[in-house]
Each structure stands twice: as C-alpha cells, then as structure tokens.
Amino acid sequence: MARESKRDLIDEVVAEVRAFQSAADEMDETASERLGLNRTDHRCLDVLEREAPITAGRLEEASGLTTGAITTVLDRLERAGYARRARDAEDRRRVLVEVTPTARKRTGELYGPLLRAGDAVLARYSARELALLRDFMREARALTAQHAARLRTSAPRA
Question: What's the CA gap between 74 and 77, in Å, rounded?
C-alpha cells in the first residue's frame, strides 16, 4: 500500500472540510424550516444561544448585520417566542437580548441527538488529538471569517 503524500492529505482534509460545510448547511437549513425561521434569524438565534444575554449591538457585531436588520430579526424572534428583550439589572438604560426556554427546548430537540452523537465520536480521540482538532477548527474559523470580511469590503464582481 502506497504511503499518502502530505499534498494528498491536505487535499483530502480540504475536501472533507468542504463536505462538512455542506452537511452543516443542510442541517441548519432543515432546522431553520422546522423552527419556522429564515436562515438569518436562525443564525442570530445561534449567536444568542451561545452568548446571551447580550446587547443588540453585540448581536449586530457577531452577525455582520446592520442595526436596522437586527431590530427586524429581534422582532421576528420575539414573535416566534424564541428571544426576549429585557432591561439590564445593573444598567437600566441598557437592553439585553436573551433566549427563551421555548427556543432552548426546540433547538435541543433538533440538535441534541447530533450533539450527543458528536460527543461519542470525539470521546474516541486522545486529549492531544482533541487539542489538535480544536486548534484546527479555531484557525479555520478565523481564516474563514477574515475571508468573509474581505469579500464584504471588496467591490462585487457580477
């Protein structure tokens, strides 16, 4: 059996990352439909689930949306029963956005089985291998975010 070259392995990793992105996109599209949300609202709900309670400004920053778009997203998420705005107990002038128990329940039903299966897969790896995977994912995420920011600020070519 021939030994794989480093170039072959890089190509395979890139292909697997692309395939993973497509599978994750399909999962998120299906979950969005089940939640009755569009993809933008679902993406913002994900940010809220990871970071809430946060300000609308932080959600704007994390999502790349405008202030007006965030207001519209939050209105829709509130109407769906997935988010609520609340005054900050420490600074009554500040409004925080939080996820509702309904949202946590619904997303848990959709993503819970995937997370549990993923935990079982990750449990097979050593601590050193997990650190490598973590570092790769962090670097890949940062690289992708930088590239997206570059595309947003460059002139469109249609």
Answer: 5
